[in-house]
Design a protein that fits this description.
With 92 residues, this protein is mainly alpha-helical. 4% of the residues are buried. It starts with a helix and ends in a 10-residue tail after the last helix. The chain has a two-stranded antiparallel ribbon. The chain has one domain.
């Protein structure tokens, strides 16, 4: 992910879903199904095609992080979702 940030992208999201590792890696079925349903809903609502909105594998380049209005962002788990792709209410 770091090499992608350095060379090409502003934001990179990893995906356990695309790799097929979510369930193999120990994700409980109820969490997998919930993740898939929530991701489907968010993709439809936001007209996006992300494989997983709720991934913890995220990286941002320095320019994006420095430009974020940090004081307007949540200080809990919402921060990641507030600052990712189409769901970003602070689009630059």
């Amino acid at each position: 992910m770091a090499s992608m940030i350095v060379k090409h992208f502003d934001v990179v999201l990893g995906s356990r879903i695309l790799s097929g590792y979510a369930i193999k890696g120990g994700m409980p079925i109820y969490k997998y199904v919930s993740n898939r349903l929530l991701t489907l809903f968010q993709n439809v609502a936001l007209n996006t095609k992300l494989s997983e909105f709720h991934t913890g594998y995220r990286a941002w380049n320095r320019q994006i992080l420095e430009a974020l209005p940090i004081l307007r962002c949540s200080d809990d788990f919402l921060f990641d979702n507030q600052n990712t792709g189409a769901s970003n209410p602070f689009r630059l």
